[in-house]
Amino acid sequence: MKNILVPIGTSNTGETLQYAVDFASEFSAQVFVMDVFVVSAKAGSLANISEKVAKSSKERIKEIIDKVDAKGVDIKIATYNGEITDGLKEIDRELGIDLIILAPRSNDIKEELYLGNTSGRIIKQTNIPALIVPRGTVFKPFKTVLTAFKSGVLKKKKMLEPLLSVQKKFNILVSLLLVKTPGYDSDDLKVHPALMDISEQLTITENATTYQGVLEHFQSHQPDLLCVFRRKRGFFKKLWEKNTILKSEFFVKIPVLMLRVKKD
Predict the structure, then answer these.
(1) Long-range CB contact pairs, 59-66, < 8 A, 24+
(2) Are 256 and 131 in contact (CB under 8 A)?
(3) Residue 240's pLDDT is what?
(4) For residue 59, what pLDDT band results from cuts at 50, 70 and 90?
(5) 3-class state of residue 151 by DSSP
(6) What is the DSSP code string of 98-145?
(7) CATH of segment(s) 144-229
């Protein structure tokens, strides 16, 4: 794991950035702090407004970076004029981003959304693995991870690379939770050998959704990291329908590692 990206627009403070820096220091990785802005072609033709906005954005990011304990981590700034998902894809093409670290909308259970429109678009519309970190969470090496899925079939082993990196670095205990949901078939029950190789326990349960399976077994496993897959039949299925995720659909107070296959 070499390059970690933090979309600063999804966090109003430096908490998420500090978490990312602490995490990156364990892997000797670089951190790229990214902000996006939108200046239309018409507006951009007036007195170089685009350049002025980009400069202002960089200054704001520098103020946030200055408040962070860098711990020797190389922190770089990336700004983009346009939609955030386009910017993420462009910087990924240029640098190769191994992980995005971002915050959910809020930790407050009274608020309706777990993922807002921006964070939801990042999860839905990019193929970069992501670590969703609740606001105010202080980084600590993971000890136990619960990996939940409704199908043990993996088209590419490389989908597991972020999980394998974390497991190797922290020597964490990996428990698997296979949730049989309505409409499953026999192939779904065949768990990929790469998953079995790193796991200590496999639990099979039947629930209406993968999330309900997680809720049922969360306390017995007591993980400090939840790992799920983002695919068309995966954990955040509703993200293929809309960008936001309601807390009634999903909510945990621990970091969530979202795996997906990056396009070559």
Answers:
(1) 60/35, 61/8, 61/33, 61/35, 64/8, 64/13, 64/14, 64/17, 64/33, 65/14, 65/17, 65/33
(2) yes
(3) 46
(4) confident
(5) coil
(6) -EEEE--S-S-TTSSEEE-HHHHHHHHH--S-EEE--TTPPP----EE
(7) 3.40.50.620
CA terminus-to-terminus distance, the chain: 17
- What confidence score (pLDDT) does residue 191 get? 94
Q: Percent of the chain beyond pLDDT 70?
A: 75
Residue ranges per domain, the chain?
Answer: 3-132, 144-229
Report CA torsion sign: 233, 133, 161, 218.
negative
Q: Token match 């408040």: residue?
A: 67
Closest CA to 161 of 225, 67, 68, 98: 98
CA distance linking residue 182 with residue 108, whole number of Å: 31
For residues 189 and 74, give the distance between their C-alpha atoms in angstroms, rounded to a whole number: 43
For residue 173, give the 3-state DSSP assignment.
Answer: strand
- Chosen CATH of 3-132 out of 2.20.28.160, 3.40.50.620, 2.30.30.30, 3.40.50.720: 3.40.50.620
**Whole-number average pLDDT of the chain:** 82
DSSP labels for 35-88?
EEE---HHHHTSTTHHHHHHHHHHHHHHHHHHTS--TT--EEEEEEES-HHHHH
pLDDT tier, 109 (very low <50, low <70, confident <90, very high otherwise): very low
* pTM score, whole prediction: 0.85
Mean pLDDT of 221-237: 77
What is the pLDDT at residue 45? Answer: 53
